[in-house]
Amino acid sequence: MTKADLVEYVAKKASLTAKASKEAVNSVFSAITDNLKKGDKVVVTGFGTFMVRTRAARKGRNPQTGAPINIPSRKTPGFTAGKALKKAIR
Description:
This is DNA-binding protein. Keywords: DNA condensation, DNA-binding. Belongs to the bacterial histone-like protein family. The chain is of the alpha+beta class. It has one domain (about 5-90): HU Protein, Chain A (Irregular). Helix content is about 40%, strand content about 30%. A hairpin with a 6-residue loop joins strand 3 (about 60) and strand 4 (about 70). The mean pLDDT is about 95.
């Protein structure tokens, strides 16, 4: 399912216009993104939890030369599915 498909689905389910549906979907994604940027967790009860995870710094190697390199730590978005979502998929 693409974002356009999601917008269309929301428009049909909620009896909204395509424009209103697109704004609603974009608002939800924007709210999740803004809270993750602040380092907050976003909990959607029954669906799951969006959070910021930190990857530790580690050593790697350059595949061309084989020389060791240091890979710095970084933040990545993460998602953990909730009980209701897991149960629905089973």
